[in-house]
Amino acid sequence: QVQVVESGGGLVQAGDSLKLSCKASGGPLRNYVLGWFRQAPGKEREFVARVRWGGGTYYWPSVEGRFTISRDNAKSMTYLQLNNLKPEDTAVYYCAAGVYGGEFDSWGQGTQVTVSS
């Protein structure tokens, strides 16, 4: 099973940018979709974006146009570029992996993103 490890969170001000990274290992990544989720304090975890092996992407509407997901298959990495951050983007961001057509079932430990106003 694929394992994923995130990095890159931090404390920023509203309007700033941040780039999260996620290293995947342990499986045939061609078969896996990589994604990002987030969980704000007191809220349920929510989907943010996902990217397929071939580069196809999908975003949750609230982040589309501000966040960009990408994938470097040669390095087994996925990235989430967060631009024009807002205080409501404050959350723990999780990288996840799942087999095509299945659920996301491999999760990282999360990285904290805090946006001050």
Q: What does this 3D model show about the protein?
A:
- The protein has strands at 3-7, 10-13, 18-25, 32-39, 46-51, 57-59, 67-72, 77-82, 91-99, 106-107, 111-116.
- The protein has 117 residues and is mainly beta.
- The strands form 2 sheets. Strands 2, 4, 5, 6, 9, 10 and 11 form a 7-stranded mixed beta sheet that branches. Strands 1-3-8-7 form a 4-stranded antiparallel beta sheet, with no helix packed on it.
- The N and C termini lie far apart (40 Å).
Number of strands: 11
> What is the H/E order?
EEEEEEEEEEE
What distance separates the N and C termini? 40 Å
Shape descriptor:
globular
Give the C-alpha Rg: 13 Å
**Count of individual helical segments:** 0
- Report the average pLDDT across residues: 96
**What structural class do helix, strand and pairing data support?**
mainly beta
Which ranges are low-confidence, i.e. pLDDT below 50, for 5 or more consecutive residues? none
